[in-house]
Design a protein that fits this description.
160 residues, mainly beta, seven-stranded antiparallel beta sheet, two-stranded parallel sheet, Lj965 prophage protein, DUF6978
Length: 160
């Protein structure tokens, strides 16, 4: 099962809305949640993943998926990853071949033929607006805004 790159870009660019508008709580450490989203007409479905790893490793993951299997974008906070060693799939990734992220914030991109195996440092995307001083909840809000999610009804219960 694959997804054409042009379709992946179009899907990412769509405005997305929470299906049920039910309020959910931001996950506690060690927990995760999935929130179902759709485009304005309701024909195309997405999933927003919020994974608050645990207090010992201080990791978290926010992800925008299509058809449950295609991760259009994923933000790994304090994560580890190695990009593929082969030639960069586009000029955006040049210089990041075989790049190793070691406890570094980075964004994975869906690339046709590679899935989400390619990532770039979060610092390359100041337009997302995530600052080091932001808590997890603020980082989540900014990431999903970047993913064109119009509104998530997620409650912040604790200081994160």
């Amino acid at each position: 099962m694959s997804l054409a790159q042009t379709e992946a870009v179009q899907l990412f660019d769509l405005k997305k809305y929470q299906i049920d508008n039910l309020s959910v709580n931001f996950p506690l450490q060690g927990q995760s949640i999935e929130i179902e989203l759709q485009n304005q007409g309701g024909r195309i479905r997405f999933i927003a993943d919020i994974d608050n790893a645990n207090e010992f490793v201080k990791k978290a993951k926010f992800q925008m998926r299509y058809k449950k299997v295609f991760s259009l974008r994923r933000l790994d906070l304090n994560g580890n990853h190695r990009n593929p060693p082969e030639n960069a799939p586009s000029s955006l990734f040049e210089g990041y071949e075989n790049y190793v992220f070691n406890k570094e914030d980075h964004i994975h991109f869906y690339i046709e033929g590679y899935g989400e195996r390619w990532a770039l440092p979060l610092a390359k995307f100041p337009e997302i607006g995530i600052k080091e001083t932001d808590d997890l909840f603020e980082k989540m809000q900014k990431f999903f805004k970047y993913c064109n999610v119009e509104k998530l009804t997620v409650n912040k219960l604790l200081d994160l």
